[in-house]
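Re: folding output
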Amino acid sequence: MSFLTAIMQITARATNQPLDEMYLRTDVTNSFDPADITELPESGAYVNGFTLEGAGWENGRNGE
């Protein structure tokens, strides 16, 4: 959670917005290889390697 908070802090500073108005938004991609991501996001960050605990996941269910 501290990693995600750090992303919000960096984004808040870069956009000159209050941190307490920041929120987390997650967009899941179907890419399994980080090398497939060739451009930086407009805001925020791409992350890889997080573990999902206590839930299941169906590949390809995010509209792609």
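--- second protein (sequence, then structure) ---
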Amino acid sequence: MRYLTLTQMEFEYALETGKPIISFLPKDPGSIVAKKCEKGEEGKKKLEDFKKTAQRKMVKYWTTPQELGSIVSRSLIKLIKDYPAVGWVKADNITDENSMKQILKLQRENEALKDELLSVTTQVPKGSENLAQGDDEIEIHFTCYAEKRSYTCNPTLVFSWNDIFAHIAPNFIDECKEDRFKLLINKLISEHKDEIIEQPCFKNLKNFSDFKINTEDFNLIKVQFKALGLIKLSERKRGVKESTDYWTLTDYGDHVMTQLLAIRKDT
């Protein structure tokens, strides 16, 4: 029979029964005083093996006892909220069987509402089915420099809406300043330099730089993604002098980004 600590036994029991698990590990194990550490080589190895197992689930790291207490407290409150269960309620707080049934009924209704909300946030917004999107294409006009001169032969590149959104979306997970939004489109254009060079007005030119999307096309892309329910203006409060718009993903936009960019395993 292999040696197990009580903590490890509790951890494995939680795994077997599908209980939510959070492990709390020291951020700097080397700072722990020697008398509170494993001394034997066998014990150290078993401890490291257990830590590796624990790190496969959710882990919170701490540096001081005070921080550990705060993290544990906040984590328990979130667990109680995210994973409601009878075990979270003290037995002497349950007055009778009818109260228990009512609580369980409300919990089931709550879960059903959560599932319904998740379904709504991952569906195409109503009314957007007639808008250009996905693999539909848009022709982008831009300017650039070649050999230190600006060329105004109205060059264009064609992208699908998915191509553009997949390129910019990760930068919108928190929020993205509008100036950076435009720079991301310019970077996408510059990455297709080989296609630009093939256009007649750039024949035999070199040293391309300073790619800039036309303002009209940038505004069109911005409005289209907003209309498709993929991005929205950030609601984060800012200083009085801050006048620049910030954009962020909607729940639906986050879902679309994940579908476009997440790596799928080979089948």
